[in-house]
Amino acid sequence: MDTLSPKLDLLFKRIFAAEDNKLCLIDLLNALFENTDTPLITDVTVINPHIDPDHIGDKAAVLDIKAVTNLGQRINIEMQMHNHRDMIPRSLFYWSSLFAKQLKQGENYRKLQPTYAINFLNYRQFDDNEPLNHFMLTDKKTGHVLTSLMGLYFIELPKYQSSQHLNQHLVDWLTFLETEDDTVREKLAEKNPAIKKAEDTLKYISQDEKERWLYADRYKAIMDYESDMEGSREEGINIGIDKGRLAEKEDTARALLSAGQSIEFTANITGLSLDTLQQLQQDLRHH
Question: What is the pTM of this model?
C-alpha cells in the first residue's frame, strides 16, 4: 500500500500537532530556527491539536497548527500544497491575529512575546532560488531590525535541493516532506529519532483504511477549491478582456464622431449600439 504524502495539510497536522509527537514538532522548529538565528526551544504546546471531521471536506478550511513554545513564542504553522496566490496577506493576517490575542484588555504591551508565521509551501512563491525566506520588520535604508516580535517564514519545498545555505538538519526534514521514496525516509529515520517518530506515524496512517478515506476527502476538497479559484480567475480575465475591448471600441467611436462621421457609419465600424453612440456624441459636445 502506497505511503500517503505528509504535504497534505491534514497529514501534516496529524503528524506534528499530536501530543505524542511533540518531539517531531520541536525538532522541526529547531531545524528551521537554526538557519535563522531564532532562539531554540525545548518544549512546545499545540493550542489547536484537534481536527474537526466536518472541516476535512470544507474546501476553505484551514488546518493550521497554533503553538506556544517554552520561551513564550507564539507560532502559526501552515502547509500549503497549492498556490492560491494570497499567501503573503494570508500569512500576515494569521500572524496578526495570533499576536493580538496574547493580551487581555488592560494588560501591558511589554508582555507581548515573539510571534511567528511559518509557511511550508509546495510551490514556488518567490523569484529567487533560495528555499527559505525569513522576513522581519527592518528599516529600508539601514537594515536596522525594528523588533524581534515579528517573523514570517516561507519554506518552498521545490527549491530545497538547490540551496547551499540550509543546514543538514533542515534539509533532512524537507526531504522527509518532499520525497516519495520510502527508502529515503527510512534512512533519514535512522539518523534522527524525531524523523523516526514522524515516519512511524505516517506509515500507521497510510495503512489505515479509514485514514486513507479521510485523506482522499481532504485532497478532493483542496482540488475542488483550486478548481473553483481557477474558474473565478478565468472569469475575471474574460470580464477584463471584454471591458478592454469595449473601451477600445468606444475610443474608436469617439475618434470617428469627432472627425464628423455619422452615428450610422460609426455603428457599422464599431458594432456599438445607436444609443451608446448617441450618448458618446452628447458627451463630446459637452466637452
Answer: 0.76
